[in-house]
Amino acid sequence: MKDGPTFGSVFTGIGGFDLGLERAGWKAAWQIEVDPYRRGVLEAHWPYVRRYGDIRHVDPALLERPGLVCAGFPCEDVSRASGAGNGRLRLDGAKSGLWAELMRLVRHLRPGYVLVENSTSLLVRGLDRMVGDLAQSGYDAEWDCLPAAAFGAPHIRDRLYLLAYPGERRHGAPDETVFAGWAQSQLHAGWARRPEICGVADGVPRRVDRLRALGDALVPPAAEWLGRRILRTL
């Protein structure tokens, strides 16, 4: 586990970020996920990785400092789809407000990179706050909206991805970003296009839990592509 670049996974869910980053050559150092069902999925696939529950109770002093921290924090208070007051609470909401807990860990751990995924609603409902918080902590940031369809998924599903890094680290030319070239991505080769569980109506234990977990998850090929792009800058 010490042979390659490591990442810590926050709001891990069922491990979409983790699957993609590991395929790109990263190694999981630890995971943080509060939901019991999702934790069970993680335990089955990453039995060797240390896991923590509620991020609000995690002491960052106990965490190994990774090269990258990835996170898809809850979007309920910013997403148009959630219907939660049309995003009025934004990053002050009970769920999306966990962004502050993520920043608490980042400020302590000082990873080389912070990779965040969330709803595109954040472009007008919280991105300014996120970039400001990162800047106050000494991080520059770049971002783009990547559709799942660009990585082989049978649906568009635009998602916002943000990459932050210490201000003294600037990769490539001034006009180059880690997101350049995503429209030409062909990394979907070898990944399943649709989880078979989505097509099963009856007889699947905890089907609702599974569908919710899949609905929350990002597409691993997108994480793989980003993971490879970041490694090119190291």
Could you tell me how far the N terminus lies from the C terminus, measured between alpha carbons in angstroms?
Answer: 18 Å
The spatial strand order of the largest sheet comes to 3-2-1-4-5-7-6
> Could you give the order of the helices and strands?
EHEHEEHEHEEHH
Shape: globular
Q: What's the gyration radius in Å?
A: 17 Å
Number of domains: 1
Structural class by SSE content: alpha/beta
CATH superfamily: Vaccinia Virus protein VP39
Beta strand count: 7
Portion in helices:
25-40%
Mean pLDDT: 81
Strand content: 15-25%
CATH architecture: 3-Layer(aba) Sandwich
Show unreliable segments: 195-204
CATH class: Alpha Beta
Q: Count the DSSP helices.
A: 6
Largest sheet: 7 strands, mixed
Describe this protein's structure.
There is one protein chain. The protein has 234 residues and is an alpha/beta fold. It has one domain (6-233): Vaccinia Virus protein VP39 (Rossmann fold, 3-Layer(aba) Sandwich), CATH 3.40.50.150. Helices cover 27% and strands 18% of the residues. The chain has six helices and seven strands. It has helices at residues 16-24, 36-45, 99-109, 127-136, 207-216, 220-233; strands spanning 6-10, 27-32, 50-52, 68-71, 113-118, 139-147, 158-166. A seven-stranded mixed sheet has the order 3-2-1-4-5-7-6, with helices on both faces. Strand 4 (68-71), helix 3 (99-109) and strand 5 form a beta-alpha-beta unit. Helix 1 crosses helix 6. The two termini are 18 Å apart.
